[in-house]
Predict the structure.
Amino acid sequence: MQTSDGFVVFSGSHISTEDDNTVPQVLKERKKTVKLDENGNLIDNMPFSSPSYAAMFVIGKSANGLVSWKDENGKTLKDLELNK
């Protein structure tokens, strides 16, 4: 969810437990402290400064959040922002 402060990944979202070398160190460190359930799902909502940081945190590799995040109809965040 996009907010005035950035982007929020909701609790219950599945998070990759491994990161490749394209993920910034700050996200790798943050992942070490996150609370996950036994299935690798977030326990709490997680705020991020950008949709790209949120996407990289979730998938564990470099990502462009404007095209990685999609709504239930398959429209990218970029498409949704262009059509405001």
Remarks:
- Residues 67 and 76 are 5 Å apart (CA to CA).
- The chain has a mean pLDDT of 94.
- The beta strands are 2-3, 6-9, 46-48.
